[in-house]
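REQUEST ID: PR-0412
SUBMITTED BY: lab tech R.K.
PRIORITY: routine
TASK: structure prediction, single protein chain
INPUT:
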Amino acid sequence: MENYKEIIEIKVEEKDKAKRLDSFLSEFFEESTRSYIQKLIDNNSVSVDNKEKIKSGYKLKGKENIVVRIPEDEVLEVLPEDLAIDIVYQDKDMVIINKDPGVIVHPAQGFYTGTLVNAVLYHIKDLSTINGVIRPGIVHRLDKDTSGLIIIAKNDVAHVRLTDMFKDKTIEKRYVCICKGNFKNQSGRIETLIGRDSRDRKKMAVVLENGKIAITNYEVIDSVDGFSLVDVGIETGRTHQIRVHMKSLNHPILGDETYGSSSDFAKRQMLHSYYLNFTHPITGENITVLGELKDDFKNVAKRLKLDLTKIVRMNK
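STATUS: complete
OUTPUT:
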């Protein structure tokens, strides 16, 4: 009997009627390739209303129950690739990279090339081994279309200590985002549970039960008619946390198609991790790192006439 890493049940809704099965699942598993989805279907790892032998082109009727069985990760050789990365800090224990939007952090479900890990393996020869060949050195992650600072551990001691620091909330992380609308309260603290959206399992949502505590602090630092520039600090690191919390305030992040809507202004969510402050895991010295905003973020802000000089920590 084959072992599965995860078994996911999906309820098809009326709005998905007439979609191809493979297209629907590609939307659900947004960080998986179409070929990986088709492989799951071909290997009978996907059942529709308890029928396992199903074709990729099956047209949904809008009311099916789909079960997807995700197999255990294959033991793979992840190859170094000569891809450009923006290293903003490096010493013998860690490296901090200002990640571009559109880059997946580590290989997963069909994405085995073109990831940040592939690039890091090329540029950095010493990495921690705790997370194995798929995620060498990876202490935390950012969503594919979120840009900004990410820490990579170069040895196992630093990795363990950095992981503990994230758990203990002793690493200060700040983001900046452009949100839709104008806030009633110019600052606030959001403390909720975040879990899977019961109506759409590819999304996260604020929930009343069966979730994990999530804490976000925000401050509106500039606004124009219909848009706000927001500085955000997080005390927890839940999946899609800032995106979910901004949606919960009815101010989704501009360009976030998952938790808001598409935009003519932005091709991805305007969310950037720009600031890290923490104690070095080995030397004990204070480390402060800034990650410059990406050009697309700057261009959108300029087009909307939002003043980026008001990001105080960026200008110290």
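NOTES: The two ends are 59 Å apart (CA to CA).
REVIEWED BY: pending
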